[in-house]
Amino acid sequence: MNVSYINPFISSTIDTFKTMLHADISPGKPRIKEGSAPTFDISGVIGLSGDAIGAIALSFPKLVSLKIVSALLGMPVKVVGPELTDGIGELANIISGYAKQGLKEYKLSISLPNVIVGKGHTIAAPTGVPTVIVPFDSTFGEFVLEVSLKTK
Amino acid sequence: MNVSYINPFISSTIDTFKTMLHADISPGKPRIKEGSAPTFDISGVIGLSGDAIGAIALSFPKLVSLKIVSALLGMPVKVVGPELTDGIGELANIISGYAKQGLKEYKLSISLPNVIVGKGHTIAAPTGVPTVIVPFDSTFGEFVLEVSLKTK
Description:
Radius of gyration of chain A: 14 Å
Helix content of chain A: 25-40%
Structural class of chain A: alpha+beta
Number of helices of chain A: 3
Number of strands of chain A: 9
Oligomer: homodimer
C-alpha cells in the first residue's frame, strides 16, 4: 500500500506549528488505523476533493487544544467555545492548504472545517479507504493527524 | 441572509430516503444554528468545495441510525461498527451527490464521508458561516441535516 501522500501532511503540520505557534513538534511512526479507535476530545475535520478524495482530522485532548489555541490567539482560552473551535478549524485549514501544495498531482480542493467536540468520539472513514494515523508530540501535549485519501 | 442553497439538500434527502429506503420523511422548519447545540450520536460529515465551500452533516440518534442502515442493507444491523458507519457515510455521500446537481452554479465537489460516533457530540462550523439545521421526522425516528456553506 502506497501511502506516500501522507508526507506532505506531516511536513505541513510541522511547518504550521513552527510558523504559527513557534513550536517544534515531533511526528511518531505513521500507522494504518485499524477499526475505529477512539480519537481525542476535539477534532478538526476537513474534506478533500479533486483527482483524489478524502478527509483529514486533527484530533486533540481538550487541554491540549486549549493550550494550542491560546498560543495561536496570544490570549488565554480556557473554555470550549467558538474561539476554540474556530482556532482548531483554522489550524486544520492551514495545514490542509499547505499540504495540498505538495500534492499538486491530485488537484485537491479543501472544504470548510468542521470541529467535532465530544469526549472520546471516534471518526470512521469508509471501509476500504486506508486511514493513516500520525501521532505527534509537542510541548502542548500529544495529538494525532488522521488522513484518509482515495486515490484513483 | 439568503440560504436558498438549503433547498436542494432538503429535496435530495427526501428523494434519497424515498428511493433507497422506500420511506417518506417530513422536513421541519429550517433554522439557523445558534451556538454549538449538541447533535445526536452518529453523524455523517462530508466536505464541499468548489465555487462555494462548506460541509454537511447528517446526525442521528444511535437507534435511528441502526434502523436506517438495517433498511438500507436489507439485514439487521444491531451494533455500532463498520456496517453502520459505512451505511451512514454512503447515505451522506448520496445526498450530497444529488444535492450538488441542484447547485450547479457552485460547481461543488464532495469529499469522502467521515462518520463521527460519540454520544452527544457537537459539530461546529466556522463563526461567520451560517449553519442551517433542518430537522426531519421519519418512521425510523428523528434526525437532522446541517449545512454550512460559504458562498463567495
